[in-house]
Amino acid sequence: NAGKTAKHKVRYFLASCLLSAKKLLAVVRAHWGIENNLHWVLDTVFDEDACRSRKDHAPENLAVIRKLAINILQATPGPARISHKMLQARWNNDFLLCALAHMR
Fold first, then answer.
1. How many CB atoms lie within 10 A of CB 87?
2. What is the pLDDT of residues 22-38, one digit of tens each?
3. Contacts of residue 45, Cβ cutoff 8 Å, sequence gap at least 6
4. Where are the domains of the chain?
5. With bands split at pLDDT 50, 70 and 90, how would you rate the model's confidence at 1?
């Protein structure tokens, strides 16, 4: 490794309070954990990347509906996996009504 220089990345963050480097790292990781989990669910469970809606407000409207569905399913008691709750809601009208009752 002689002659090679180390590469460093610099990132800038805006915060409303002064945080130690350790606390800032924890906050940033928590944010990206939530963000990555949401996008993973949208892509794998709702197959969002395959959606071809491009006209007018359709993409934004569908994104809001998908996120609402995720919130409803997460708040609904039942199977741990959202995909299993979606199947339950398709097969069982009582479960679907229970899920809709958990809208926040």
1. 13
2. 998 898 888 888 777 78
3. 82, 83, 86
4. 21-101
5. low
Q: What amino acid occupies position 100?
A: L
Q: Which two tokens mark 22?
A: 């350790």
Q: Are 75 and 48 in contact (CB under 8 A)?
A: no
* Cα–Cα distance measured from residue 35 to residue 24, given in angstroms and rounded to the nearest whole number: 16
81 or 104, which is more confident: 81
Residue 6: DSSP 8-state: P
Q: Length of the chain, please?
A: 104
Given a cut of 90, whether residue 85 has pLDDT beyond it is yes
CA distance 73 to 75: 5
pLDDT tens column, 35-57: 777 888 888 888 888 888 889 99
**The model's pTM:** 0.62
d(C-alpha 86, C-alpha 96), whole Å:
9
C-alpha to C-alpha distances, 56 to 47, 51, 52, 61, 62, nearest whole angstrom: 20, 14, 12, 10, 12
